Amino acid sequence: MRLKKRLITILFISFSIFLGIEFIGGEFYFEKIFRYVKMKELKNISFIKGNIINYKKLKTYQEEKNAFVIILDKDKIMNMENFDYFTITDEEGIKKTFLLNAFLDNLYSNSNFSIDNSETLNITYFNLIGNYCVPIIINNKFKNYIDYKLGNYNLKKHHLIGKVSSIETSQLSFTQGDDLLEILLKLNNFSNKNIEYQEADGDLSRLIIENKGDYKVIIFYSYENINDIFPTFRIYFYGKIFLFIILIFIISKIIEKKIISPITNLSNVADEIGQLNFTQISYNKNDEIGDLYKKINNMSLRLEEMISLYKDELYKNGIKNEELEEKIKNFMHEVKTPLSAIIGFSEYLREVTPSEEVEIIYKEGRRLLRLSNETLSLETKKNIYTFEPFDLGMIIDLGSRIFKKEIGNRNLILTNITPIEVIGDREKIEQVIFNIIKNSTEYAKHKIEISLDVADDLVYIYIKNDGPHIYPDSLNKIWNKFYSDKNIKGRGLGLYIAKEILEAHNSTYGVKNIKKGVEFYFTLKRNRV
């Protein structure tokens, strides 16, 4: 159930974040993003190349961008086909062009506007640019036509009486010319601009004026179309939220049936396996969960087989260890007789021809005899320790001479080995040091290093070799009785005996892998006289 709640929560949060971003983006930023992208599109003026106007591309540009364009060559409009207009020649012979788009849009007359060629008109107008004008009032012999909207503009008005020399009607279907003319009348100049206008009806428009070669391009775009569709966008977003809620519910049910229930079943089976109740489970679909079920079944079967095998091995190993202990005890019994003879003979030689070699034979013989006695009493823990001061440096020096042959061509490095007294059982500590040195000779490649360090009341003994690392899983196990694996030589008694001795001395001991090799270490109490 926890997994089900978590998945449903993740689904809900994910969908909610997605919807929130989409809703906020649509509600607050869509229009801004649209305007920014639209402005970039409008400023991509591709219909003028090398001071040549491509009127076909201009028409396509206006249709695709839904924009109204005026191209000026100084004070001359180069694309008059966008406008409804007529021309009049005044009494001085000056021709003026009157753009009618705004006038016709604002006309309050009940009858259609109508003028004829050669007809005399009395016109009140605003100057737009050059000889282009926007009429406010047009009087002929039949009717007065008045643009009451433009008539309220606070601009300088001009009057003209003249005859109509030509009348032209726009060949294009753009409806934005009236708004553009009204905005241009309010401009003081036609310098480069990129501005937005808020119209009286609340609609926004964008006006872009840029130079392109020798031409000045005026681009006008009204956002009124996009504003009309925003209510529809809101309905769309609200509907999408409702549909997503239903979709989350349906998906959660599918996930529960197809994924969560099988996984919950797997969890229950894993608990059973953890309690050593090995059961087989079934799942009929050939998918990833089906593969997982097969692997769980296979793991359960193998674990059952391994545990059964392990139990058999434990039983067999128990018998083998008992046999090994019995053989060791028999060996120790048998070795005591020749050891006694060696000790007796070396004791005689000590009196007759004393030498360092005879002294080593005598001492090591007695040590081996004690070791055999202690091994025979290993299970009963009846070892007796005699704690007294002794020179630790002397024992290390003795060990270096005893194992000189085993060390062979490898380097034996003694660091800071000086006479220093510690408290402990001399022979037992000697046994620990000799065991670890012997162990090092079996693994070292090029060198063995023995060093001492003194800190307060403790003496630290380090014995390193540059042999292979010990597996991490074996670092603590090598101190166990009879422990061995394919990479550890011997029967597993030497380090076990060393552990027993060190623990009796309350020593801190251990073994660790170092950068190049293995390091054994232990501590002894320093004798302060």
From TrEMBL:
It is found in: Cell membrane. The chain crosses the membrane at residues 7-30, 235-255. One of its GO terms (molecular function) is ATP binding. Residues 257-308 form the HAMP domain. Residues 330-528 form the Histidine kinase domain. The keyword DNA damage does not apply. The keyword Nucleotide-binding applies. Its main location: membrane. GO terms for cellular component: plasma membrane. This is histidine kinase. It comes from Cetobacterium ceti.
